[in-house]
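Quick note —
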Amino acid sequence: MSARIFDTQRFMRDRLRAALRRGTLGVLDIGSAKISCLVLRIDPERLDAVRPAGRSAQAGLDAVRVIGFANTQSRGVRMGEIDAIDEAERGVRTVLSRAQKHAGERIDQVAVAISGGAPRSYGVSGAAPVAQGEVTAQDIGAALVSCILPDFGPGRDVIHAQPVNFTLDHRTGLSDPRGQVGARLSVDMHMLTAAHAAIRNLAFVIRRCDLELAGVATAAYAAGLSALVEDEMELGAACVDLGAETTSVSVFLKRHMIFADVLRLGAAHVTQDIAHAFAAPLEDAERVKTKHGEVQATGRDDREMIELRRIGSERDFERRMITRTELIGVIRPRMEEILEDVRLRLDAAGFDCLPGQRVVLTGGGSQLPGLEDLATRILGRPVRIGRPLRIQGLPQAATAAQFSALVGLAAHAVRPQDECWDFELPGRYGPQGLRRALRWFRENW
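Predicted structure written out below.
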């Protein structure tokens, strides 16, 4: 890993710790259909009292309370990436203003979830001798530095680099080997990269809103932290976050994310299919999908009539009537296509080798009636619909499935799992690196 990547992430992690000590933090989910924000109040003493080993999704959340929430229609975002800087800035400013007004407090630092950037997952490993016979953080750093990194090409940044398994001599499956006695330490690490341009544009919008970026996480990871329960994360499960223009897939095992990917298909494509099929305005197509949409047809659907306007029509007699069966006939093929793509990604990730193979659907697109049964048939695995985990003060409006990534980002920000840059790495990753990071961060982010 280049010094620039490591130092930038470490610099942001220091910002995050500073925000947690001050007691206030904002989390932002900038998606293609909505931009949402939570303002968190943190009790630093209670947070420090959580044992470091307690890295579960719930760890540290007792020290957090949601004091502000806002949600607005997304602007300037396409396929989960910033498409128009000015429009995106207006959207972020709008949601921040509402959330801060709700909280009665101003925020200076935010952690952000990114749903685009074409993320790619890599599994890497390394090993190093234990210097003094007892494993220290320095020994872990030496093992991490020894990892042979993949050639992920130019124009990409590492946004997650999590040690997911340690092996000390012949004992494997260790989550934290510090303090244990052995001669050789090996580490398996999951690394996730994203397009540098997507992250830089996101950071640029945050800076234009007079905020400091205190962390970036992929929405696939955040949604998994929120929608999966502890046993699912431990035994192995996949989280499928059905968003508007993208569908995020993440796989967890032993409470760590071991794979993530994003499909450039989502619920908005279903809306577009309805609009095209029936020559209806997008607004009406979305309304009909939300109110009458389903993926499993029944015998009575032929008798249920739905009214739709035609594009450009202003008179009542220009409206048309369709049956619910016709509507389902448009929705189902697109959902089948999305689920087939999800199945291919899971198969490529070796999901069938995990001890547990449950799939959890979340996100706004997961609310279509009948989707759970359709997904079970196509994916060939047990499927359930997941909602965000509970946080103190979380308003009822934020408990819907479309806010899983937002709530999961709050859990990640408050008690982040160990990443490569949390350890003291030998060699070129020394104190000089932070000075380089500060200069590079100001010039580029």
